[in-house]
Amino acid sequence: MVRVEQLAGGGLLTLHDPWLPSAEAEALLSTLQDTVVWKQEKIRLFGREHFQPRLSAWMGDPGTIYRYSGLTLQPAPWTPALAGLRERVEATSGVPFNSVLLNYYRSGDDAMGFHADAEPELGQNPVIASVSLGGHRRFVLKPTRDLPDEAPVTLSLGGGSLLVMSGTTQHFWRHGVPRQAGAGPRINLTFRRIVAS
Ligand SMILES: O=C(O)CCC(=O)C(=O)O
Fold first, then answer.
1. Where is each Fe2OG dioxygenase domain found (predicted)?
2. Whose C-alpha lies nearest to ligand 1, atom 8?
3. Which of 5, 94, 137, 165 could form an SS bridge with 169, CB 3.0 to 4.6 Å?
């Protein structure tokens, strides 16, 4: 099923759910859990250093360097599984990607704070394609102060779904994955296009 949601300010969400067949999504989750070199990065927030409450990895074409929250990520080469998945994400979304940020939420205690994928190296109005494997988590979008009358939008992402965020979503909306008691392991893959490093 494909659900399309227009966001105020010109953003667009396109959710393909289901997208990957469930057996394939489960097999990919366990391959990535076992084979990716996961790190718990230390980031700088409001002048203080914290460990991120999740594990992550960065993969991409040579030269796709990504900087956020005081981190500079050098790309690991594509694994065969993720190179193949990139092609399928590109076929569904119609957009080329050269990199992917992997986030591993080991349990409902792991989380992602509210932010926009709006780093300069992603260019103006980036398209972000987000594949979610494993347990479902609430994915919440909150409007920025430019849209004071808008209510948050909440989706449930997991099990092999594909969410494409496009238009001005990263300009007028911030997104996050709050802690969620009882949630199982989940890996999220956000495919991106670095246009300048
Ligand atoms: O885990 C998710 O669904 C969100 C990941 C995310 O916000 C990001 O990679 O920027």
1. 96-195
2. 190
3. 165
Q: Which helix (H) or strand (E) holds 13?
A: strand 11-16
- The series of mean pLDDT values per 10 residues for the chain, 197 residues long, is 97 98 98 97 87 97 92 96 98 98 98 96 97 98 98 98 98 98 98 90
Residues within a 6 A CB radius of ligand 1: 101, 103, 112, 117, 130, 132, 139, 157, 175, 177, 188, 190
Q: How far is the CA of 12 from the centre of ligand 1 (A)?
A: 16
The domain tally of the chain equals 1
Cβ within 8 Å of residue 187, ≥6 positions away? 29, 32, 33, 102, 103, 104, 105, 132, 133, 134
Q: Which two tokens stand for residue 166?
A: 């496009």
Look up the domain containing 150 and give its range: 2-192
Q: Is residue 197 part of a domain?
A: no
CATH of the domain at 79: 2.60.120.590
Q: Provide the pLDDT for residue 196.
A: 81
For residue 94, being part of any structural domain is answered with yes
Ligand 1 atom 7 nearest Cα: 176
